[in-house]
Amino acid sequence: MAESTLQSPVPVAAKKKASDSAILRVTKYMAVRLLTMAFTVVVGLYLTILIANMGGYVDEIRRGQIREDIQQGVMNDQALRNLTGDQKVKLIEERVANEEERLGLNRPFAIRSVAFLKDAITLNLGFAEFMNADNGSRSVRVIVLERLPSTLVLFGTTNILLFFVTLFWALSLSRHYGSWLDRFIVATSPMSAAPGWFYGIFLIVFFAAYLKVLPFGGMVDVPPPDNKIEYALSLMKHMILPTLAITLNQLTFAIYNNRTFFLIYSSEDYVEMAKAKGLTARDVERKYILRPTLPTNITNFAFLLIGVWGGAPIFEGVFNWPGLGRTTLIAAGLFDTPVIVGTTVIFAYLLAMTVFLLDFVYALVDPRVKIGNESSS
Amino acid sequence: MKTIRNFFSELSHYPSAFAGLVMIIILFVFSIYTIFALPYDQAISLWRGDENVWYNTPKNAQPTWMNWFLKDDLPETFSFNSANGEGTKTEEFSNDTNKIFISFPFEYNSKDFPQEVSIFFTSKFEQKEPFVSVKVITPDGREIKVGSFTVGKTHSYRFSQDQKLQRRLQGNSPEQGIFMDLTSETEQLTALPGKYEVQIEAVGFEEGSTVDAELIVYGKVYGWAGTDHRRRDIGIALMWGAPIALTFGLLTALGTTITTMIIAAFGTWYGGWIDEVIQRITEINLVLPFLSILIMIGTFYSKSLWVMLVCVIALSIFGGAIKGFRAVFMQIKEAPYVEAARAYGASNMRIIMQYLVPRIVPLLIPQLVILIPSNVFLEASLTLVGLGDPILPTWGKLIYDGVRNGALVQGQYYWVLEPAFILLITGLSFAMVGFSMDRIFNPRLRGV
Question: How much is the pTM?
Answer without folding.
Answer: 0.82
